[in-house]
Amino acid sequence: MGKNIPKVTTTFQFCDGGSCQKAKSEIAVREARAYLRNEGLWDNTHTIKTRCNGRCEDAPTWIVQPGNFWYKNLTPEKAVAIMKSHTQENQPTEEYLLYQEGWSVLLTENEKTVSPPVFKCKTEEIHGEILIARAFASDQHLYPLFQYFFQTPRPIAVQVGEDSMLNIDQPHQVDYSDKYEVKITGEQLKLTLAIAGIPKDIPEEIADRKVSVAEVIWLKKKAIFTKALRLKNKKGKHLVTMWIKEEDNKTWEHILKIYLSMSPDHIRIVEDDS
Ligand code: FES
After folding, report:
1. Ligand 1 pocket mutation pick from 29, 50, 52 by most atoms within 8 angstroms of CB
2. Topology of domain 119-270, per CATH?
3. Contact at 8 Å (CB) between 71 and 61?
4. Residue 61: CB within 6 Å of ligand 1?
5. Distance from the CA of 21 to the center of ligand 1, in angstroms?
6. SUPFAM superfamilies attached here (predicted)?
7. Edge-to-edge strand order for the sheet containing 173-175?
8. Domain limits of the chain?
9. What is the DSSP string of 177-239?
10. Residue range 5-99, CATH number
């Protein structure tokens, strides 16, 4: 029988994402659940395993509701202490908290700093002098960008593999219902790219179209299309380049602001490429 939700007073969300699993989340979960069962608290609590909570540096993590209490670096001992304090005292276990409502900062010892994308100068045989920014290649970034490019068509051109450029001015469907691949289809383009994380034993043809490198390039020379998103696979094979017209400030600003988290008024450029 399913959980009788109206009876539930406290919900424990155990992160079961990859980093938390590696940090032995499961043994803390087992202790926590055993504690609830033996204390007769099973019916008025709920335990849920979630995917990544977005704080892998503090793995294993939990979230407890109500109250939005976030816990870090869970161990079986901490797990039982947290269970007790929430179910018996209606209080968080403060010493293990990562965050609670009202705090303006996280209490973490493991903050990772991710360097924001920057443009660097480079010379390429094909384009001459360019500015190039290594960008985000995950589906969380690429799928929304493809929606932006293709669902309401922008005046872009697409170059798939070694083919010549193709102007796009019709709306295209961007379908990401497959486990790994996004399909961009319409009258002018049919393109399939793998953008989700793929397992090692995936068929080679899917691995071959897996986007591993994303670059925003900005040509210095005069041309109709001067900015682009260039995607490559793990082996460096060119998959596709989506070109933006020189005068298309709207699309360019979207790329800078939304995709690269960069203000169009303060574009980050590093002169030295060493
Ligand atoms: S996998 Fe648990 S926080 Fe990311």
Report:
1. 52
2. Heme iron utilization protein-like fold (3.40.1570)
3. yes
4. yes
5. 8
6. Thioredoxin-like
7. 173-175, 181-185, 190-194
8. 5-99, 119-270
9. -SSSEEEEESSS-EEEEE-S---TTS-HHHHHTB--EEEEEEESS--SEEEEEEEE-TT--EE
10. 3.40.30.10
pLDDT in tens, 64-91: 999 999 999 999 999 999 999 999 999 9
> CA torsion sign, 221 to 223 to 226 to 231?
negative
Q: How would you write the pLDDT of the chain (274 residues) with one tens digit per residue?
A: 799 999 999 999 999 999 999 999 999 999 999 999 999 999 999 999 999 999 999 999 999 999 999 999 999 999 999 999 999 999 999 999 999 999 999 999 887 777 889 999 999 999 999 999 999 999 999 999 999 999 987 889 999 999 999 999 999 999 999 999 999 999 999 999 999 999 999 999 999 999 999 999 999 988 999 999 999 999 999 999 999 999 999 999 999 999 999 999 999 999 765 5
Using the atom order of ligand 1, give the atom closest to the CA of residue 15.
2
Find the distance separating the first CA and the last CA of the chain, reported in whole Å. 62
Residue of 15, 25, 29, 111 to mutate, ligand 1, most atoms within 8 A of C-beta: 15
Testing ligand 1's pocket by substitution, the residue of 22, 24, 53 carrying the most ligand atoms inside 8 A of its CB is: 53
Ligand 1 centroid to residue 50 C-alpha, Å: 9
ipTM of the complex: 0.99
For residue 59, the tally of other CB atoms under 10 A from its CB is 22
Of residues 147, 146, 167, 169, the one with CA closest to residue 157: 167
- Write the residue with the smallest CA distance to atom 1 of ligand 1: 17
